[in-house]
Amino acid sequence: MIVERLSLVDFRNYEHADLEFTRGANLLVGRNGQGKTNLAEAVTYLATLGSHRVSADAPLVRSGADAAFVRARLGHGERHIQLEIQINKQGSNKARVGGAPVRSAELPRYAQVVLFAPEDLQIVRGDPSARRRFADQLLVQLSPRLAGVIADYDRVLKQRTALLKSARARGLRGDALPTLDVWDDKLIALGTEIIEARTRLAADLHPHLVAAYAAIAGADHSPELEWANSIAGFDPEDGDDQRVASGAVTAEAFRAALAAKRTAEFDRGVTLVGPHRDDLMLRIRALPVKGYASHGESWSVALALRLASAQLLRADSLLGDPIVILDDVFAELDADRRMRLASLVADFEQVVVTAAVEADVPEELRGRTVRVEAGRILEVSDDE
Question: What start-end ranges are recorded for coiled-coil regions in this protein (predicted)?
């Protein structure tokens, strides 16, 4: 799969932008803050329905505009398809496929993208929310219907938590709040599906992670990944970092965990159990990456997670290779890791690289070059 053409209206710092891409390597060059990452972000949004930089959509809309438009023509073999999304500052987004209106959640069926970015270091070093977002965006690409499940879970979670806060303010408890059981049922049904999908994802990703880490780091440090679930008594949001043995995730276990936390939930006005409080535990040499790994090792794990994602999508998808985007990552890497990463992604059908300094990019990824300045496409050159 490749992106052949990208058009933007009122997206980030672009009032209007039109850019054609080619098969193989594409290089976007420009000083920091000019809009290179915004182009990468727009392509990725179509595949993941989210940004790698912000959790809300409003910052994606140019200042002074009410909505942003992202249009892309994708090619897979002889097939071409036009995707479009209208990102609204307020209200629901609107999407089209081939000119026909569809739900936004349908777009990942047609677009698959893996983006490497400096922010990826937060996946391994940051809060659990960064690891949950990484997993959920990959899940949406592997199984687009989960976009709706995750959105529904978030909606139910907000409504259930609002009910708990209201009950706390009024001094109510479980027996006096029978409507909570209704929200429990919805939370359990949706949450169980997410937890089990994440568990399968970790198992599927593991062999690719092991191979990718060894290739990037040049060493075998036995990388591991495992979900620690709040329904099993683990709560990273409360600073609980103990290792929890994996086991079968069931709706019954979810319900029992909610019952056990009921009093604490009323006391705090917060939903304390569910996939929104789980964490993806990452280890090398049997030690947690967060807190134990060196800077170089942490980068190797972050890059390996993205490369493993690309390999999993490549193996699983009927759309061919995912589009691989390397957003300003070479400036963060030493020369050895630059060359290793470049050699690992060079055989993907399309690679898009952004860089402030062209010399930072290994020669094999300096293909068609686009220069970006202040939200404008200035020059295009082809390196055949």
Answer: none
